[in-house]
Amino acid sequence: MTPSPPPPSSALVPATFPPPPNPKDPSSPQPSPIPRVPPPLPAPDPSRGRRRPRTALPSRRRAEPARTGGAPGAHRIRCLGPLIGPVLGPGTAMLSRLGALLQQAVETREPSVDLLEAFTEHWKGITGYYLEATDESTPAKQTDIPWRLKQMLDILVYEEKQHPAGEAGPCLEYLLQHKVLETLSTLGKAEYPPGMRQQVLLFFSRVLGQVQHPLLHYLNVHRPVQKLLQLSGHPLGSGTEKEEAQFAAVLCAKIQQDPTLLAYILEGKSILNGRKAQEQPGTPPGEGAEHPPARRDGNLVTSLVGLSKSQASRVALKARENLLLLTGLPQEAAAACLVRSGALCQLLSEHLCHLHGAVPPCAHPDDVLAMGRASWRSPGDAGGAGDFAGKESLVAFFCWLDFLDELVAGAHPLVAGALGEAVEEKFFRGVLQPQLLQMSELAILSATAVLSGTVRQLRAPPLLQRLVFFLLGPGGHPKTPGDPPHPLRAHLIDRCDHLSDEISLASLRLFEELLRVPHEEVVLSLVLRNLQARGYLQRGPPVPDERSAPEPDPDEEEEEEEDPYFTDGFPENGFGMGKKNQGGSSPLGKGHVSEVVSSFLCLVPEEAKTSSCLEEGGYDTYVHDALGMVQASRSRAASWGWPPAPRPLNGCPPEGQFYEGRFLKVLFDRLARILDQPYSLNLQVTSVLSLLAAFPHPHLHEYLLDPYLSLAPGCRSLFSVLVRVIGELMQRIQRVPHFRAKLLLVRQQLLGLVPGEQMEHATLFKGVVVLEEFCKELAAIALVKGPPEGPP
Question: What is the DSSP string of 590-620?
């Protein structure tokens, strides 16, 4: 065999290989990393229709036309080619082929994806699932449906960015023309596969929230939206509250941007059963008598109200915030649509009645009033520290009431008026009134306590006005004893003087809450309308007053007995009545506040004063509290337009016998029995009278805080009632041995300085303590308010 010719001399030179690299020697040459080419992806199996490989959306860079000279990076690779060979030596051929391969990969461009084809492919994949699937128990999350819905959403959003604003792309047109949303809402209603409703709600929320093109005007959009809203609250939808709240929030955001959409979403037609929805909650008489009333159709309002009752606090909070958003729309057309088509007022007031019915009848007034004002945004802070039966029910009721109060305060006047009317009809008259008029003592206590909490909770003017008129009746001319009373008003006032001390105490607390309400009609109805003509003053020439003489004559004491409110033996140096002028007020009462203050401080005789024995402060300890109370009263009455001075007598029409009114009569009667009543009841009576005295109306100030009034025959004022109580006290002091020592012991027991012990005449001693403190409080209020200014 002939040997082959030898190669060229250059090829005979043996190849020299570098020594193996030493990892520990950094100067040792290291091999260059050779990139690995990933294996090609397997082709998708056409037999599997339920899951396909993710279709990559074309990026903006791929959509641009190819630049001249090849793909980016190709020139860099070509430039690096001549440099690689000399450096790498023998491996040049292999790396050259690798470089060519990389260059070809870079220069090769991926063909653009047809968006409409990809969109329809994903939609057909979803519909094909229902033809191919055999396991009906497989949850929707374990199928490719969520992924395909996400791809459809991404395609719609991407397509919209590629088109001018306001122009619908082919994928969006396909969505609308082929009723994709209609089909999805039907699949969501069927809840097949399990969890499909959740996926549909998410897709609707994302499409409506991310696609900027207006969609809710289209019939093929707002009709399936209505269908989904009607499914809210369905038993099958109990696990989709979060998605339902998100869906409703997106709709409310769209309505806020364009309030005209509300008419599309609250369309008065049932989509599920194809019948006309009722526009009014009740059926007219004679219509539908043979058939039961149809159920209330679901819509955005019913969905939000249902979600606002959720046990999930975040869901309920979000739903209530969206209700506030809807009712606060300033457009009158939107407000009218809510009132007419939404059943909003009936649903909200019915739930209030339902929560009130869940409150146990054993709720005690002390527990209710100790709760404080509730807040629907933080219901955990409303219950206070104590625990008692029915606390959770009360918190839920007052939180819902607080939500309604805020909703009415910020709602359009049309919505606020309709909701106030519904609350009055269904709750005030339908629930509260029968409970307040019943005869059971336990029921009266519970109903009065809940009513007191209701009065304290409400601040929205439309609700306050209806509540005040419901309790006290409409205002009018001054009432006389013979006038027919407002039934509920008369019952509530008479219960302040009830045989049961607990009912009297609860009723007095109710009126204290009412007097704190920022509504003028409360004070007008209870007190002021009987004082407008100043009929309590003596008219005509001034009557000489022997009590004001510098040197009183004992022979004239018989004339003092003509005044039924002054008793024999009363010390004259403490509260001598000054000379009256024709207007009825003394110049001292107007010009010298110190004289008025001294008149109240000197009412209680020294034998009955014990505060100084315990080094307690005088009336000045009440000045700070009196200042806060007077300022709060002035703030409430600032917008009521009360006159700064009393009305001149010559401008007041003459009237018959003066009548102080039912409310003041009960308070004065209770105050006259202060020495024989329970301690807690005396505190409440004096608290209500102090609150009345703090009001800035000049007639009320004159009647309650001026000791120098020239009263008409048969009339009494607050000061004259106190004078009679002091006269009775002076007589009883003489009949009780060691009166002052026992009185001091009782005061120490009330302050907690000594342990409480059973003692004879304890009620009398506690009444004297309250009487002394009440006179000090009145003196502080008179000091803070000052005298009324202007002509008498």
Answer: HH-HHHHHHHHHTSS-GGG--GGGGT---GG
Give the CA angle between residues 370, 376, 382 to the nearest 5°: 20
Question: Cα(458)–Cα(424) distance, rounded to whole angstroms?
Answer: 13
- Asked if residue 429 lies in contact with residue 353, where contact means CB atoms within 8 angstroms, the answer is no
For residues 596 and 689, state if they share a domain. yes
Any residues with CB less than 8 A from the CB of 551 and at least 6 apart, and which?
A: none
Residue 722 backbone dihedrals phi, psi, to 5 degrees: -65, -35
* Residue in 758, 363, 679 with CA at minimum distance from that of residue 501: 679
DSSP string, 424-472: IIIIIIIIIHHHHT---HHHHHHHHHHHHHHHHH---HHHHHHHHHHHH
Q: With the CA atoms of 90, 92, 98 and 102 taken in that order, what torsion angle do they form, in degrees rounded to the nearest 10?
A: 150
- For 768, counting Cβ atoms within 10 Å of its Cβ (0-12 exposed, 13-18 middle, 19+ buried), the class is buried
Nearest to 759 by CA among 781, 780, 786, 738: 738
Whether the Cβ atoms of residue 201 and residue 188 lie closer than 8 Å to each other? yes
C-alpha span between 514 and 504 (Å, rounded): 15
Residue ranges of the chain with pLDDT lower than 70?
Answer: 1-113, 233-238, 267-297, 342, 381-386, 475-478, 540-591, 615-617, 654-655, 787-792
Helix (H) or strand (E) holding 334: helix 332-341
SS (H, E, C) 506-555: HHHHHHHHHHCCCCHHHHHHHCHHHCCCCCCECCCCCCCCHHHCCCCCHH
Assess whether 506 and 411 both reside in one domain: yes
Is residue 721 within a helix (H) or strand (E), and if so which, with residue range?
helix 718-733
Specify whether 264 is located in the same domain as 361. Answer: no
Residues 416 and 268 both lie in one domain: no
How far apart, in whole angstroms, are the C-alpha atoms of residue 386 and residue 380?
13
502 and 634 belong to one structural domain:
no
Read off the pTM: 0.78
The predicted pLDDT at position 700 comes to 95
At 450 the three-state DSSP class reads: helix
Rounded to whole angstroms, how far apart are CA atoms 344 and 296?
Answer: 11
- Given a contact cutoff of 8 angstroms between Cβ atoms, the answer to whether 614 and 608 are in contact is no
The whole-angstrom separation of Cα 565 and Cα 722 is 9
Q: How is residue 424 written in tokens?
A: 């009055």
Q: Which residues pair with 711 in a beta bridge?
A: 537
Q: Residues 121, 231: one domain? A: yes
Residue 591 has a pLDDT of 45
- What 3-state class would DSSP assign to 711? strand
Residue 595 lies in a domain: yes
Q: How far apart are CA 322 and CA 319, in angstroms?
A: 5
- What is the distance between the alpha carbons of residues 446 and 442, in angstroms, rounded to a whole number? 6
Q: Which of 463, 459, 394, 454 is nearest to 422 (CA)?
A: 463
| Domain count of the fold of the chain | 3
Considering only CA atoms, give the Rg of the chain: 43
DSSP state of 200: H
Mean predicted lDDT score pLDDT of the chain: 79
Which residues constitute the domain of residue 359? 354-515
384-411 confidence digits (pLDDT tens): 556 788 889 999 999 999 999 999 999 9
> Which tokens hold the place of 339?
């009132």
Rounded CA gap, 626 and 542, in Å?
A: 34
| Helix, strand, or coil (residue 269) | strand
- Per DSSP, the residues of 73-140 read THHHHHHHHHHHHHHHGGGHHHHHHHHHHHHHHHHPPPPPP-HHHHHHHHHHHHHHHHHH---TTS-G
Distance CA 542, CA 587 (A): 14
Domain-embedded: residue 90 = no
Write a three-state SS string for 649-693: HHHCCCCCCCCCCHHHHHHHHHHHCHHHCCHHHHHHHHHHHHHHH
Residues 180 and 269 in one domain: yes
The answer to whether residues 380 and 472 belong to one domain is: yes
